[in-house]
Known about the structure:
Elements: E1 20-21, E2 26-29, E3 39-43, E4 50-52, E5 57-60, E6 66-75, E7 81-91
Parallel strand pairs: 1-7
Antiparallel strand pairs: 2-5, 3-6, 4-5, 6-7
Amino acid sequence: PNNPQDIPLIITSPAECQQAYEEQQYFNVFKANRSERLEWQLIGRLPEGLMLSSGGALQGRPQSTGDYIFAVWVFDQKGKSDKKTFYLKVLQPTPSYIKYGNESSR
């Protein structure tokens, strides 16, 4: 039978991250095809306010809107690794309420 250590390590998370909103709490966990303890590292820059933990969690409150491209590297205990480029869009938050009576009449 196949030894799990012989299986290549592959990042399985989609390249397009779940979109984030400026100043709003964000949480996204990167995943790979293997479940043992993995080490995750960032290559490039994240929006200010977001951090990548060594466990693969991308979290925080992004401070500015825009489109961000960065890469993530994952390593297993035996030295196998994989790298993938990700895209993250940070949007202006939409108000969760509707203002009544503030529209100017035309």
